[in-house]
Amino acid sequence: MNEYTMSQIFIGMTETFKKEITMEMERSFRIISGDNNPLHQDDEFAREVGKGQFPSHVTFGMLTASLYSTMAGMYLPGKYSLIHSFDEVAFLKPVFVGDVLTVTGKVTDKDENLGLMKIKVIIKNQENMKVSRAKMKVLVLK
What we know:
This protein has 3 helices and 5 strands; from the N terminus they run E-H-H-H-E-E-E-E. With 142 residues, it is an alpha+beta fold.
C-alpha cells in the first residue's frame, strides 16, 4: 500500500497494477451484490443474448469498476485516500473470467487547499484493449 501525501503528489504521476478476474471473485460479488442476472453466470444464455459475440458469461461491470477503489485505496494515493466522486465511469468492452486487467491511474489535477486530486483511470485487458475508464476525485487526508 502506498502512502502518498498531498505534498508528494504531482500532476502526471501514475501508478499501475494488474488483476486477473476469477470465478471466485464473481461468486463473491454475486453474493455481496445480490445480482443473479444470468448474463453473469450462464454461458449459454450469454452466447444466445449476445448473438455469439460473447464466448461465455460476462463479468459484472461493477466488479471491474471495483478496481477503481483499489487504485485510490492502495496505489494513488493509497493509505490516505477517500474517494469523493466520479465524473465519469464507462464500460467499453465486456470482461470475462481469466482476463488479466491492467489498471493505470494518472493524476490530472490537484487542489492543495481542498486536499483533492483528480485521477484518470484506464483499465485494459490482456489484449491491450480498453475495457473501462473513469475520472475520479479523491480526497487526500494527509
